Amino acid sequence: MSLDGKAAIVTGAGRGLGLAYAQELARRGASVVVNDVDAEATADAVAAIQTSGGRAVAVVAPVGPTETAKELVSTAVEHFGRLDILVTNAGVLRDTVLWKMSDDDFDTVINVHLRGTFTTVREAVQHMRQAGEGGRIICVGSPTGQRGTFGQTNYAAAKAGIVGMVRTWALELARAGITANTVVPVAATAMTATVPYFAAAVRAEANGEPMPAFFRHDLGFGTADDVAGLVAFLGSDAAASVTGQVIGVGGDRLQIWTHPEAALTAYREGGWTYDALVDAWPSTFAGAAQSVGERFPRLPEEFEPVTS
């Protein structure tokens, strides 16, 4: 099953994961609007797709403003006559602990990730609903949005918010035949290259060597191309029944994340007063308390970062 005749938009597609998504969609037959803020990277991405026999055009603009969303959709319709797939991948980082995070640190990340996803999806589905041929919305999340990460208040809020929006959109768009899903990638990128834990995997990727099995299998950490197949699948007719899902992918691993459910339910006639909670928490509730943050296994000795 191919994507022949389909048209897609991929934001943040100048390099890294976004570029891999755009190239895979084009390989499968889709025409692609490549978006990024870096004009040179965007031009190179379009040229690479065209050189490989695909169709692509560029839109150099930051996501967030409604004007960018309108330009992306109008470009797809003008050049390709339609819009079937939207991948919201654009993002930035401004990492620091809560007490040092500035208003600008917070607002910049929220504007690009959360508002950028909202405005672009809103514009895309307005066109898709009017066209009446369904569509595919694929939003990029993060393990940080699922579990939290030290120093990433802004990023965690944005990525968790994206998941919440996607679940809502899956409900709202079902009658129009438009699916909405979240992809949670775990891959060697510029963002993960600075994490010492992944150094051996990132180094192997940079050197064109096979990534060690510990990373690919045990951690589910791989390359951008390992994620791109899922994005293309979710954009296809084969995934017409898949919606409202949060799907993690990396290396050799694919995961469907659960939606939040109550871990424990207990009742007390008259309600839960302060005194009742003091008495009951250790024996009734403490065992159901949830962990936070990701927990990685200890690195095998051969992959330990070299320190000077």
Keywords:
Rossmann fold; 10 helices; 8-stranded mixed sheet; alpha/beta; 8 strands; 308 residues
Walk me through the structure.
This protein is an alpha/beta fold. Helix content is 43%, strand content 14%. It is globular. β2 (31-36), α2 (39-51) and β3 form a beta-alpha-beta unit. The protein has helices spanning 16-27, 39-51, 66-80, 103-131, 143-147, 153-173, 199-206, 213-218, 224-234, 274-285; strands at residues 7-10, 31-36, 56-60, 85-88, 135-140, 178-185, 246-250, 253-256. The mean pLDDT is 95. An eight-stranded mixed β-sheet has the order 3-2-1-4-5-6-7-8, with helices on both faces. It contains ten helices and eight strands. The N and C termini lie far apart (51 Å). It has a domain at 7-187 and 223-256: Rossmann fold (3-Layer(aba) Sandwich). Belongs to the short-chain dehydrogenases/reductases (SDR) family. This is 3-oxoacyl-[acyl-carrier protein] reductase.
Instruction: Write down the overall mean pLDDT.
Output: 95
Uncertain runs are none
Element-by-element helix/strand order? EHEHEHEHEHHEHHHEEH
Fraction of helical residues: 40-55%
The CATH superfamily of the domain at 7-187 and 223-256 turns out to be: NAD(P)-binding Rossmann-like Domain
